[in-house]
Amino acid sequence: MEKDIKRVYISEEQLAEGVEKIARSLSDDYKDKRPLMVCILKGSIVFFSDLIRKMDIGLDIDFLKASSYGAQTFSSGVVNIKQDLTADISGRHVVLVEDIIDSGRTLSILKEYFAKRNPASVKICTLLDKPMRRVTALEPDYKAFDIDDEFVVGYGLDFNEKYRNLPYVGILKEEAYK
Ligand code: IMP
Ligand code: MG
User: Fold this and answer.
1) Residue 157 placed within a domain
2) Atom 13, ligand 1: which residue's CA is nearest?
3) Atom 17 of ligand 1 has which residue's CA nearest to it?
4) Does any domain span residue 1?
5) Distance between CA atoms of 38 and 169, rounded to whole angstroms?
6) Could you give the number of structural domains in the chain?
7) What range does the domain containing 44 cover?
8) Distance 157 CA to ligand 2 centre (A)
9) Tens of pLDDT along the chain (178 residues)?
10) Is 104 near ligand 1, meaning CB less than 6 Å away?
11) Residues with beta carbon < 5 A to ion ligand 2?
């Protein structure tokens, strides 16, 4: 895997710091609210599992699998719910946990989908953000890092299902996906 990485973009230490910062904000904001933390599969699992372990408040977890990519490096704008939540979210404070926001299409659609189920609130938490790529008005409520317009992998993020288990976020060499 390492040979396909152009350079380390966010190191393990930087990731840990970013995650800790968000976990602290969430713990303050959701104290006594018992949030429902929703892991958006598969890309968020590494971030999600680190994040919830740094939160020192009562919470619930659930999982949702959405897909919009296929073997491409851009979002199609068509979001399929492949696996839905098991929890009833009415009256709950929901936090959607994403790995990265790019065009914003995936989360705009998901946020709407969630809002229809009468939650008390829906907020968005992302590890990475590519603000210059946005084509929707979507803004995350919590984010750890802004990044440039580069295709990154690792710490849960994949290209064609590979590289998710790299412990850092790295920039993929162009020849690895072109
Ligand atoms: P959006 O709908 O364009 O915002 O796409 C968001 C989704 O695209 C993320 O959940 C990722 O699965 C994927 N994605 C966007 N940029 C990258 C990247 O640089 N590396 C890996 N996956 C990415
Ligand atoms: Mg994803």
Assistant:
1) no
2) 100
3) 151
4) no
5) 22
6) 1
7) 12-148
8) 7
9) 889 999 999 999 999 999 999 999 999 999 999 999 999 999 999 999 999 999 999 999 999 998 765 555 566 667 888 899 998 999 999 999 999 999 999 999 999 999 999 999 999 999 999 999 999 999 999 999 999 999 999 999 999 999 999 999 999 998 988 7
10) yes
11) 43
Tell me whether residue 73 is in a domain: yes
Nearest protein CA to atom 10 of ligand 1, as residue: 100
Q: How far is CA 108 from the centre of its chain?
A: 13
Q: How many angstroms does the Cα of residue 32 sit away from the middle of ligand 1?
A: 32
DSSP 133: G
Q: Which of 8, 100, 85 is nearest to 47 (CA)?
A: 100
With 0.90 as the threshold, say if the pTM is over it: yes
Please, where are the H alpha helices in the chain? 12-29, 45-54, 105-115
**Which residue of the set 29, 32, 60, 102 is catalytic?**
102
CATH number of the domain bearing residue 48: 3.40.50.2020
In a domain, 171, yes or no: no
For residue 77, give the ligand nearest its CA.
Answer: 1
Residue 53: which residues within 8 A CB-CB, separation 6 or more? Answer: none
**Minimum-distance ligand to the CA of 74?**
1
